[in-house]
């Protein structure tokens, strides 16, 4: 808002800023500034004091519909049994599609899930007067790893520095600090730990001419090939084998038709240069992230997916999906907000010691959606389903 005198009108800040009164005051300010009178944003059940550390200039809550899909049968190392999965979305057909995939794979004996890796990064860069000086610095970092690790680990109860990768270019050394972060997603945790470690390095190593705590090699909230190859967050594979009769009965197609479509999809993805050869992993991931209080922007990395399928000798269809950069948390951030916590509790995934279980459930959910959408396209049901379920008309 700009006043008639040309002066900027700041958003109201109050001494008691996280209260219903403060939110109402800002909504009133918005009404005067924009000429609108929001009727729903300011109607909510949560205590505004609960969102301290989650949002600034609080005015209310965006209400997103939550549907439930399941039961999802998971044969994991951390998630075992049946789960009813909350999905927050405004896209009609999405919950129905994932529900159908879960029905299929429940009849097939469930989804097998495996956590392959777990690491979170911060990637500082150091600049020197020459490439040789940069090389010498890299050798010193390797020799000093134990001391660097002690500094980094001292900043956190749950995070642990695993290793430091090195990448050189010109007269710069890029260091990729790899951590395990417990039940937190860990971006802030790794930032704090790496900052302290780098302070220790710069105090002891002469000749550093340039320094940046994050060089973009960690690629926060951006998809990247390095994270597809090297992992960011959790690397999880979900796989299942489906009998031909089940595919005909539930998906109304055949393993041969689905495999042929998968081959064409791989080729089309290669032509387009996409970061994933899957169908729509971002759909299920985003819906689960919204429901359970994850950092939504992490969908940019987490939705990268690697799909592989095979026609087996007995006519069955093997299908797997690997998510190489799944960034999730069951503690901290938005996971403790009331509705988000309830959704995590529905899955038995709220709190400490639950993040790998949650990662397996997310990946198993994605697999169900991949099979359901893929078969709908092959069987000619995709457009019809959206016409029936996904058109929100007055």
Automatic annotation (TrEMBL):
Q: Which InterPro entries does the UniProt record give?
A: HMG_CoA_Rdtase (IPR002202), HMG_CoA_Rdtase_cat_sf (IPR023074), HMG_CoA_Rdtase_eu_arc (IPR004554), HMG_CoA_Rdtase_NAD(P)-bd_sf (IPR009023), HMG_CoA_Rdtase_sub-bd_dom_sf (IPR009029)
GO MF term list: hydroxymethylglutaryl-CoA reductase (NADPH) activity
For the keyword Oxidoreductase, the answer is yes
Question: What is this enzyme's EC?
Answer: 1.1.1.34
| Gene3D superfamilies found in the cross-reference section | 3-hydroxy-3-methylglutaryl-coenzyme A Reductase, Chain A, domain 2, Hydroxymethylglutaryl-CoA reductase, class I/II, NAD/NADP-binding domain
Query: Keywords in UniProt for this one?
Result: NADP, Oxidoreductase
Pfam families recorded for this chain? HMG-CoA_red (PF00368)
Query: Which GO biological process annotations does it have?
Result: coenzyme A metabolic process; isoprenoid biosynthetic process
**Classification via SUPFAM superfamilies:** NAD-binding domain of HMG-CoA reductase, Substrate-binding domain of HMG-CoA reductase
What is the uppermost EC class here?
oxidoreductase
The family note in this entry says: Belongs to the HMG-CoA reductase family.
The UniProt entry, under PANTHER family, shows:
3-HYDROXY-3-METHYLGLUTARYL-COENZYME A REDUCTASE
Protein name, per record: hydroxymethylglutaryl-CoA reductase (NADPH)
Q: Which organism is it from?
A: Trebonia kvetii
Q: What is the lineage of its organism?
A: Bacteria, Bacillati, Actinomycetota, Actinomycetes, Streptosporangiales
């Amino acid at each position: 808002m700009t006043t008639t005198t040309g002066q900027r009108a700041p958003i109201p800040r109050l001494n008691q800023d996280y209260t219903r009164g403060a939110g109402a005051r800002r909504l009133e300010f918005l009404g005067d500034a924009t000429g609108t009178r929001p009727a729903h944003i300011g109607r909510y059940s949560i205590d505004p004091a609960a969102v301290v550390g989650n949002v600034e200039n609080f005015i209310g809550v965006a209400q997103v519909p939550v549907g439930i899909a399941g039961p999802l049968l998971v044969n994991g190392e951390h998630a075992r049994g049946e789960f009813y999965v909350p999905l927050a979305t405004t896209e009609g057909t999405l919950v129905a599609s994932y529900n159908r995939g879960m029905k299929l794979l429940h009849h097939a004996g469930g989804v097998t899930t495996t956590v392959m890796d777990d690491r979170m990064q911060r990637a500082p860069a150091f600049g020197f007067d020459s490439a040789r000086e940069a090389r010498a610095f890299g050798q010193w970092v390797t020799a000093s790893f134990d001391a660097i690790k002690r500094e980094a680990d001292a900043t956190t109860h749950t995070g642990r520095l695993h290793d430091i990768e090195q990448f050189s270019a010109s007269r710069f050394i890029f260091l990729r600090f790899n951590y395990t972060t417990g039940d937190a997603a860990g971006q802030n945790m790794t930032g704090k730990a790496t900052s302290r470690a780098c302070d220790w390095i710069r105090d002891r190593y002469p000749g550093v001419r340039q320094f940046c705590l994050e060089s973009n090699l960690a690629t926060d909230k951006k998809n990247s090939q390095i994270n597809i190859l090297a992992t960011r967050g959790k690397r999880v594979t979900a796989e299942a084998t489906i009998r031909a009769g089940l595919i005909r009965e539930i998906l109304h197609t055949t393993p041969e038709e689905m495999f042929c479509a998968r081959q064409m999809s791989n080729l089309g993805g290669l032509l387009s240069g996409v970061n994933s050869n899957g169908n729509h992993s971002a759909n299920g991931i985003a819906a689960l992230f919204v429901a359970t209080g994850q950092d939504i922007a992490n969908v940019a990395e987490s939705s990268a997916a690697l799909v592989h399928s095979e026609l087996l000798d007995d006519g069955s269809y093997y299908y797997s999906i690997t998510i190489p950069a799944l960034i999730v948390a069951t503690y901290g951030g938005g996971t403790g907000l009331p509705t988000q916590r309830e959704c995590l509790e529905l899955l038995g995934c709220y709190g400490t010691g639950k993040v790998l279980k949650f990662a397996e459930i997310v990946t198993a959910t994605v697999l169900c959606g991949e099979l359901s959408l893929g078969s709908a396209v092959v069987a000619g049901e995709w457009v019809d389903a959206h016409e029936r379920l996904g058109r929100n008309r007055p």
